[in-house]
Specification:
alpha/beta; Alpha/beta knot; 2 domains; 6 helices; binds S-adenosylmethionine
């Protein structure tokens, strides 16, 4: 995938939410993670993390918005459930981006709002858990910027050509299983 992204959270108050968000960021391939004005013991979360996220991603702790230093050319994207935020499915993710999420009991601060290049929201009825909002944002980035085959018109996955140069055995196993499934479904539809 082109570019890179980082994820951050402002004023986080629950260790479990931080652990959850860092773990998702690591799993989705974030290049760095940051916290601004944390209200928890970040070190304790770090010590109890079993996914290794803290060991494999640069992790920054900033005590104020003014302390925040992002790489040159990196656009700051505020993730906040506001009326005039851009809806995530219509948002073009910047190639180089840092996503910042807000605290459990509040919103992103006016200071960070002054620094953001974009503000996005996940279209839904009301606010959800900060860790889940972060994961959905990263998932949207990955599916809109990753190189995945197009979805087919009919239900099911795309017809894939065998990729003999990349993990050939695993790929062939997958392909033959889906071929078997299609055959079984067809038989079911035809009542045979
Ligand atoms: C639980 S929400 C904060 C509580 C919320 N301000 C309220 O109404 O009480 C925590 C953070 O999750 C993120 N968030 C949750 N739902 C969201 C959504 N639908 N769109 C964008 N961000 C969301 C935002 O970063 C938000 O600051």
């Amino acid at each position: 995938m082109r570019g890179y992204f980082g994820v951050g959270v402002e004023g986080i108050t629950k260790e479990q939410n931080l652990g959850n968000l860092v773990r998702s960021a690591h799993a989705f391939g974030a290049s760095f993670f940051f916290v601004i004005r944390p209200e928890i013991d970040v070190h304790a979360v770090r010590v109890s993390d079993t996914s290794g996220a803290f060991d494999h991603m640069p992790f920054y702790v900033w005590e104020s918005v003014d302390d925040m230093v992002l790489p040159k050319g990196c656009q700051l994207v505020g993730v906040e459930f506001m009326e005039d935020s851009v809806e995530l499915p219509s948002f073009r993710h910047p190639t180089r981006a840092a996503y910042i999420l807000g605290p459990e009991m509040g919103d992103l601060s006016p200071e960070i709002m002054e620094k953001v290049d974009h503000i996005i929201k996940i279209p839904m009825k009301f606010c959800i858990n900060v860790g889940v909002a972060g994961a959905l944002t990263m998932y949207d980035r990955v599916i809109s910027m990753g190189r995945f085959p197009d979805r087919p018109v009919r239900p099911g996955g795309p017809e894939l050509e065998p990729m003999t140069d990349v993990m050939p055995e695993r790929h062939h196993r997958r392909r033959s299983r889906s071929a078997e499934k299609r055959k079984a479904n067809k038989a079911l539809q035809e009542g045979t």
